[in-house]
Prior knowledge:
By secondary structure, this protein is α+β, with helices and mostly antiparallel strands. It has 2 domains: 1-109; 110-167, no CATH class. It contains 7 helices and 5 strands. The chain has helices spanning 13-28, 37-43, 73-76, 111-121, 124-136, 141-151, 156-165, and strands at residues 33-36, 53-57, 62-64, 70-71, 84-88. The protein has a 3-stranded mixed sheet. Helix 4 (111-121) runs antiparallel to helix 5 and helix 4 (111-121) crosses helix 6 (141-151). It starts with 12 loop residues before the first helix and ends with a helix.
Amino acid sequence: MSTIDVLRDVVSLAILERAGDISSRLKKLGIPHVLIGGLAVGVHGHPRGTKDVDFLVGVEAFESVEPILVYREELKELVRIGETDIMSVPDAYPGLAGELRLEHDVPVISFRGLVLMKLDANRPRDREDVRVLLERSPKRIREVRDYLLENAPELVSRLAELLASGR
Length: 167
């Protein structure tokens, strides 16, 4: 079963097709990437509706990164705020670059990388995603904590607070 097939019952076909199309385009351009956001949450065990497609991409996606990020010309038409977001690896978490891949199917960020990104964003929806993911996979809490200790130690306390509060 493909990455996209996992979500067919909860996400519109148009969104899933967009994710596949964008991933194909990124692969053809040689840009390593992973699916993040709500679609990745669904793949990792908490399928929920979403209206956008989010990708984390390598520096190959940009004409320049300093002083501001400028997308390559071939990608400018793909990015539509609220529909399709393509973001670079955050400076604060360079270890996330190790998540990026080029592969046949739509690559998806790892469980632990997704939790890091959700904890960093820290919006109510992100906290709820993390809570449900860890509730459904409690054996992964140690893995996530260890990953955070190595890659984002400032987020360990946020994880502990979320687990303690149950929400």
